[in-house]
Amino acid sequence: MTHFMTHSMSHDKTPDDIGLIRILQPETPSSFRLICFPGHMHATGRYLGLAELLLPTVEVLLIQYPGDSGDLGAYRPEPVGDSEELASKIFEALAGFTGSRLVFFGHRAGARLAYRVAERLEREGAALLQTLFVSGSNAPCVHAPLGPPTLCCRIVALAADRDPGLTPAGVRAWRRCTSGRFDLETLSGARGCLESHKREVVNIVHDQLMSLSPFDPPDPPGPGGELRLFAPTHHPRNPRTMDAE
């Protein structure tokens, strides 16, 4: 049974605090920690379905933004900002969760926000980020002058082929953000691909995680646990790598 744990920056959470919803399998040691950055306020609940499809060795943390109810309910989805101030708050909130094999998944504005937090992590040497998944977003450097990449982790961009908010150049520009590997995954359709292609998105995440080399865990897996990687339960896919272009 999936276990839900909610954390905040303080015991008495205020509307300005970052909340962290932690989803893990209590009987299975985690091999990866996947931190999700939703693109809208009050949309955290939409990511629970993704978490349920992931392998039990993937622990999930959902970012709950200041003033975010966590559930749409009577609220309308509001795009989240990707300010440096918000990125700093998230960076501070994640201080106790960076000891495992770390992966970020950001959707729309949440992708650009995840990129800001990833920059801070690498700049300050706080953690080694394995992979940054960016979904439904043009790169922040698409109109910026060419400069050295700010990240060294792998970046995987997911884009719907008929998303009116994206441009091919904007999505491909994510490869300029890292000196590491860059993969582009294209999904059919327009907006809402996280819901309409939920299982395909999860398969992409699984394939990318399983392609990472074996590792020595930084921390003990816990009493009676053995840290191990499970083989994916779907057919392997061949992501399109843009390095050669």
Class by alpha and beta content = alpha/beta
What can be said about the biggest beta sheet? 9 strands, mixed
Strand content: 15-25%
Q: Strand order within the widest sheet? A: 1-2-5-3-7-8-9-10-11
Following the backbone from N to C, one meets helices and strands in this order, namely EEEEHEEHEHEEHEHHE
User: End-to-end distance, in Å?
Assistant: 44 Å
Which regions have little confidence, pLDDT < 50, spanning 5+ residues?
4-11, 215-245
How many distinct helices? 6
Give the radius of gyration.
17 Å
Q: Report the mean per-residue pLDDT as an integer.
A: 78
Shape: globular
Tell me the helix content: 10-25%
- β-strand number: 11
Task: Please characterize this protein's 3D structure.
This is Alpha/beta fold hydrolase. The protein is globular. By secondary structure, it is an alpha/beta fold. The chain has helices spanning 48-53, 84-93, 109-124, 168-172, 193-196, 198-210; strands spanning 3-8, 19-24, 32-37, 40-41, 58-64, 78-79, 102-107, 129-135, 154-160, 182-187, 240-241. β9, α4 (168-172) and β10 (182-187) form a beta-alpha-beta unit. The protein contains six helices and eleven strands. 22% of the residues lie in helices and 23% in strands.
Q: What characteristics describe this protein?
A:
single chain; 245 residues; alpha/beta; nine-stranded mixed beta sheet; two-stranded antiparallel sheet; 6 helices; 23% strand; globular; disordered C terminus; Thioesterase; AB_hydrolase_fold; TEII; hydrolase; Alpha/beta fold hydrolase
